[in-house]
Structures
1.
Amino acid sequence: MIAEVIVDITNDQVDKVFDYIARPDTVVGERVTVPFGKRFIEGYVLRLKEKSELSLTLLKPLGQPKDDYPVLLPEFLALNDKMRALFHLRNVDCMRLFIPTQLRNGKAKPLYSHFIELTESFDDQELLKNTRKNATKQIELIKYLRPDNLYAKTELNKKFGSQNVTKLLELGVVCQVTTAIHRAPQFIKREDKQVILTNDQEKVVNSILKNRQKVHLLFGVTGSGKTEVYMRIIAQVLSEGKTAILLVPEISLTPQVLATFTARFGESVAILHSGLSDGERFDEWQRMRTGQAKIAIGARSAIFSPMQNLGVIILDEEHDPSYKSETNPRYDTHEVAKMRGEYNKCPVIFGSATPSLDSFYQAQQGEILLHTLPNRANQKPMPNIEIVNMCDEMRAGNTSMFSKRLLDELEKVVRDKNQAMLFINRRGFSSYMICRECGYVAKCEDCDVSLVYHKEDNLLKCHYCNRRYKALTNCPNCGSSYIRMGAIGTQRVVEELRERFPNVEILRMDFDTTKNKNSLNELLSKFGQTKPCILVGTQMIAKGHDFPAVTLVGIINADMSLHFSDYRAPERTYQLITQVAGRAGRADKEGIVILQTYTPRHYIYRFASNYDYLGFYKKEINLREVTHFPPFSKIIRVLVTAENKDEARATTARIYSKIQDYFSIHRDEFLLCSAMASPVTRIEKKYRFQILCRFLLNTEPEITNFIFDTVSNDKHPKSLVFVEVNPSNMS
Ligand code: ADP
Ligand code: ZN
Ligand code: ZN
């Protein structure tokens, strides 16, 4: 037999499958050692076949398996083909997604514990006779052991000396029993909360269970009890002997979420998150693989959990950008979930209070089934969102970053010993220009997206059509010279707050303050215990936290993401506002949201403050259609980076000219095809260039395939080239 093997090395040239002569006991999916050139490396058996196209004399024999089970489930071998076709990944990229690094590099191994017991056919007198008379310790040990009892070997070694334990093992007086220990992640223990489903929830649960082979979108306002719906469906599939995967965005993978699930499902829950040690991660993976764990909960990469016989796959907060991997290997979790759903013939559920435009559009097209939970489970109204015009503040002489309304509300929080969350929006490297007098923001005349300021050449550029504009010194709208880059950091907000409220605890939560493994949890638990308290943070505070004493949510600079140079900026802004607002007034106390903006009349704020998702959706999808943006078109960016600028430029030019040849024949489908330096021209010493293509979907997927093929056929040893589909970060 011949084994087709994927070798575990990264090299553009080596995305091949190699033939080896199989051992008689070779199984598909096993991890093996293979001779490769002059070395021995790790590989995975993808397939077995009768014959190779190469002559047998050229083939080398397969080495020994590294594990006593095939590490790749049959499902993953099928998934490999599908993912390669859709995301243009290399075999080795897929394998690395399927198999935890801890297993691949041998960093984590099972943790064993050894026990000693008396051998069954043990004859007291006989043995004592055979043991040397002066071996008093050995005799003591034999007398100490009771039949049918297990003793920890380390304990016996300590008490009687390891040489004596070894001796008795050699004599066969005692034998050793070895078991693997489960290194379990820590979680909070909590009582399970039993509720009776509302009529709406009941309808959703039944409808999903009736349509098992479908993809579902669960659109339910914050607090509508989506989690309870997930748990009921999971309980049902578990009772049928099946398993489940629940994905949540990494930053909302909070101890509270885990506690909720372990309270109901106990030991059947396995957890994968970035805070686990290598050993814990390895053991959780093994518990999933062997079926000890029935429910896998984790962030994006947990979609590759080795669960067998899946009964349901759930993506909670499905709109979250983190479901798209934007670094290598690039893939979209939604699509992988659909592939696994199809393979297992099980339902896939996307859940959100603010569904992504893509998913909602698919639901409207009838491709996925829509379910709605329009009301909060506890019947509480959503907090009132009050819009404050920061231009008015400026005109009234208030140049601080806090409006008078926000300060008044903050004082009230402090007086009543409640809590406030202040949200600052920061993402990406790029900046937009905004007039602080009138709120004017520089936009592209052709594309209606905010222009990005490029410091090096002091120009404003459109990232979608490459049009350039002179940087502004005065506002073209009102003439004011208060035209600035719109960026404020959490640190500045905290400093100003400390001056204004010297006696109040002020906490900061952002990427910098939560780098350590436990700092996020510590911060959250400190916030939970401190009153009054103001928590200042980025996106992180928007997710899933449940703090009953929060009565005020302030959004310092709502516009920030609105003017981000991404066509999805309005969508993201709507999602963020709704989520942040959902943090206020969750318990008995009523909540209020103060939203500060320089463009109060923007349609997003009208829809968001009325919690009118459908209104927002209709407006936004219409805009996408008339401006030919996704889902009505596709954007592809080819990103080229190299340490040598000329090298990067030459690679870009070479690939660009090939794409242009194609473009000149298919001009009708293309909306844009251009090459330019990236907005951030250099990152980590590497120069960056990009080719942007935007095209209609008529000839999809041919154009996409053409671009991927062009890049993979181009030889560029000194440049790195990435192809990105509908990227959200264009810096
Ligand atoms: P979502 O995930 O939609 O934001 P959750 O599932 O977190 O909402 O539910 C919000 C709150 O409502 C939780 O405290 C939950 O225990 C409670 N809840 C959910 N369903 C019910 C129900 N049927 N009856 C009473 N309370 C419920
Ligand atoms: Zn433009
Ligand atoms: Zn102005």
2.
Amino acid sequence: MFEKVLIANRGEIALRIHRACREMGIRTVVAHSTADADAMAVRLADESVCIGPPASRDSYLNIPAILSAAIITGADAIHPGIGFMSENAQFAEMVEEHGFTFIGPSPEHIRVMGDKTAAKQTVAKAGLPVVPGSDGAVDTLDQAITVAAQIGYPVLIKATAGGGGKGMKIARSEEELQQAYQLARAEALAAFGFDSVYMERFLDTPRHIEVQILADTHGNVVHLGERDCSVQRRHQKVIEEAPSPALNDDQRRQIGELAADTVRAIGYRGVGTLEFLYQDGSFFFIEMNTRLQIEHPITEMITGIDLVREQIRVAAGAPLGYEQDAIRFYGHAIECRVNAENPESFLPSPGRIHSYHAPGGLGVRVDSALYDGYRVPPHYDSLIAKLVVHGTSRNECLMRLRRTLAEFVIEGVDTTLPLHERLVAEPDFVNGQYDIHWLERLMEKDA
Ligand code: ADP
């Protein structure tokens, strides 16, 4: 097992990884920017190294600085966390070239799955159904018009490098397509540095259902069930739950096994998530994330498996040590993503926290790096806390969620807590009847 792990990330996820390492007897080094010198993970880690100024490109995306930090501290492995370097194949390669273990999949798997058209082709070959769309990238407007005529309007233009819902535009007709195509390319270029786009049929009422996979380097693969992440705003997840209220046990087992078989077929290692849209009883693969997901705690709550611990173990070459039959699903879990944002305008709200009280009690978990007096920096993602609640039934989970949301105090910055309080009381949410467009429809009604 590793003796020392360098955590190349920040915020709640850096803390989450530190906690797993500590429980495994592994020492930690947190590589941080100057803006994060007072972060909770930096305070708790065995060591910390400042790797640059606040701007991510100069610190959390600065490969030479991260590698130097690993060299001078004598770390054995680097955990990239979520976002930043976690899906950068070149980084993974360089980590290995410098003699460290990258806690994640092989660079080849990151590369293939990072190109969303290559990812779709790869999983389709392994037997997974995919959303109908272009065969690969769509390089000209003429080609886009031809493809749209074949798959039928409405269509969605998506960035092949995609992530965070960026570079995605809907076109409902050929007239709309002209503009949407150019806009998607421009947005893709700005966000990812490449303007390559592809096209899919736009589904009107799907749910977003994703399957958690865990694979070791000895050919063992298990799935840890699904998460329903359909409550979204601008293609970004807001609330997630496991299991999905839309699936029965047979459907759950089928999609889980199909996902596990796919991952086995491609020889993947580590944790990974296969994302699907689910509509009218059918699943359509959209993408695979080759890293930990923000919403991983709900899976941990219903399986009792520590995903970060397992991720570190398999990266060190350890066998899983259990098979699918050993995995038990128990109860229901829901996560609310709490952002430092105005709950109506969604404008970021950085600043100093002058009062913080996290809820507790049976079945309650708060993943957050906040503390009284902490200053939320303006430079990064606005996620500041994940409220995760477990109950023996969905109803118990909902009652507990309402109780904990009412107890949660975060003062000094605006947060999305009031939005969550409202959403979990909406009859459609209570009944589990929502799709990926539900939240935006609800907000349009308000406007
Ligand atoms: P990203 O990598 O940017 O997160 P995804 O491909 O995972 O992009 O899609 C993000 C979200 O966009 C999905 O969860 C879903 O809400 C929406 N979406 C993606 N593809 C489609 C589609 N073909 N039809 C309708 N909505 C889609």
